[in-house]
């Protein structure tokens, strides 16, 4: 997830275009902006790169998720099936919509299990939000088939997986809408930013309206000033969009570099007894931001994480013991500790989030370790890392 590694002259040039005009905003000021439309250009190039009809930038990936849920008609009391392994923002956006997160197990892809989703359906289920974690894919074709058959909204959280694909089709483009994040640690960054993509013209219209107080954006500027709907302000700034535009143009090089670095490490690790790897439904489409592997059990995973730390192999995550990405440690969420009462708490069937049982996910996440793949490693650093990794893990 290395966008932060490569802030360079290209990003500075795009930002300077904006600074020279002083038009720091994505809408309006047509004459003053001297043809610079950074957010708009980013959207056009992102849609083309992902093979979707529409892309709309937002202030963050979380804002994109909130916007996409609303644009897909998900709201008060609707049940939304989510995985327990994700960044907590996925769950927050469901709660902020007034909807009910319903957890289903992950499988060996570390993403939502299609069988577990089928088992979690109720008459109130409206949407399924698979999260393509750590740069690679869920069993997205099976999830899509299930959603189509049951008439459910498929909304992909592809925040961590821009540029990844399944059978040549971009992650984020399978469902009614897909969301991306361009925050400081993602594959490409805007500083802060996110995007909703969709092929559905009505969802797109609702997306950009919702993210800007219901403005219609027809014609020039913000359109006829009609109020299409109640929305919010999830707009991106032109400055942030400018950074992302330069980063997007480096995406293919980023993917190539990550894939090469990951392959070198993975090949060497294949020889280590007891180490197995995360299932990838389409290895070719992996964006390779992380190398995720399994140890034989929780104890050995903890030993492995410690040994990698001692050996100086940085950027390794044992998610089971990490605060932000697995439900086990979300104490604030278990008790719905919030600044103000949440809509879900007013529901007669508000789930008991302190008692969500996911033994299959506990087992898998307990054994999983992800190693971040960086762009900046030179050949020596990569060789050293491989040697240190094999050395640290082989005795466990
Ligand atoms: C980063 C992330 C988000 C939220 O994105 P922000 O831009 O940080 O708001 C949502 N879901 C997942 C899976 C993420 O990794």
From TrEMBL:
<dbReference type="InterPro" id="IPR015421">
    <property type="entry name" value="PyrdxlP-dep_Trfase_major"/>
</dbReference>
<protein>
    <submittedName>
        <fullName>8-amino-3,8-dideoxy-alpha-D-manno-octulosonate transaminase</fullName>
    </submittedName>
</protein>
<dbReference type="GO" id="GO:0008483">
    <property type="term" value="F:transaminase activity"/>
</dbReference>
<dbReference type="InterPro" id="IPR015422">
    <property type="entry name" value="PyrdxlP-dep_Trfase_small"/>
</dbReference>
<dbReference type="InterPro" id="IPR000653">
    <property type="entry name" value="DegT/StrS_aminotransferase"/>
</dbReference>
<keyword id="KW-0663">Pyridoxal phosphate</keyword>
<dbReference type="GO" id="GO:0030170">
    <property type="term" value="F:pyridoxal phosphate binding"/>
</dbReference>
<comment type="similarity">
    <text>Belongs to the DegT/DnrJ/EryC1 family.</text>
</comment>
<dbReference type="Pfam" id="PF01041">
    <property type="entry name" value="DegT_DnrJ_EryC1"/>
</dbReference>
<dbReference type="GO" id="GO:0000271">
    <property type="term" value="P:polysaccharide biosynthetic process"/>
</dbReference>
<dbReference type="InterPro" id="IPR015424">
    <property type="entry name" value="PyrdxlP-dep_Trfase"/>
</dbReference>
């Amino acid at each position: 997830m290395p966008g932060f590694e490569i802030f360079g002259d290209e990003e500075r040039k795009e930002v300077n275009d904006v600074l020279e005009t002083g038009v720091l905003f994505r809408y309006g000021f047509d004459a003053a902006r001297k043809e610079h439309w950074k957010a708009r250009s980013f959207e056009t190039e992102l849609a083309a790169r992902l093979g979707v009809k529409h892309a709309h930038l937002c202030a963050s990936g979380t804002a994109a998720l909130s916007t996409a849920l609303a644009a897909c008609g998900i709201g008060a009391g609707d049940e939304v099936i989510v995985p327990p392994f994700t960044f907590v923002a996925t769950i927050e956006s469901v709660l902020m919509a007034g909807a009910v997160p319903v957890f289903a197990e992950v499988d060996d892809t570390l993403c939502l299990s299609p069988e577990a989703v089928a088992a979690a359906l109720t008459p109130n289920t409206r949407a399924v939000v698979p999260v393509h974690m750590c740069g690679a894919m869920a069993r997205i074709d099976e999830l899509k088939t299930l959603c189509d058959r049951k008439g459910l909204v498929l909304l992909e959280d592809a925040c961590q997986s821009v540029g990844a694909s399944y059978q040549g089709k971009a992650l984020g483009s399978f469902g009614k809408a897909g969301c991306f994040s361009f925050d400081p640690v993602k594959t490409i960054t805007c500083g802060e930013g996110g995007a909703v993509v969709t092929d559905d013209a009505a969802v797109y219209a609702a997306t950009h309206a919702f993210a800007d107080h219901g403005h219609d954006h027809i014609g020039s500027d913000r359109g006829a000033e009609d109020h299409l709907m109640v929305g919010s302000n999830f707009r991106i700034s032109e400055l942030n969009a400018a950074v992302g535009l330069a980063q997007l143009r480096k995406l293919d090089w980023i993917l190539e570099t990550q894939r090469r670095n990951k392959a070198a490490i993975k090949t060497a690790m294949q020889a280590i007894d007891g180490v197995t790897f995360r299932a990838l439904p389409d290895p070719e489409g992996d964006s390779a931001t992380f190398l995720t592997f399994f140890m034989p059990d929780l104890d050995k995973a903890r030993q492995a994480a410690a040994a990698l730390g001692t050996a100086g192999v940085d950027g390794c995550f044992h998610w089971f013991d990490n605060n932000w990405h697995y439900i086990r440690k979300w104490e604030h969420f278990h008790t719905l500790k919030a600044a103000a009462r949440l809509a879900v708490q007013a529901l007669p069937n508000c789930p008991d989030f302190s008692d969500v049982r996911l033994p299959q996910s506990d087992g898998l996440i307990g054994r999983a370790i992800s190693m971040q793949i960086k762009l900046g490693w030179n050949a020596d650093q990569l060789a050293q890392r491989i040697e240190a990794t094999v050395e640290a893990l082989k005795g466990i």
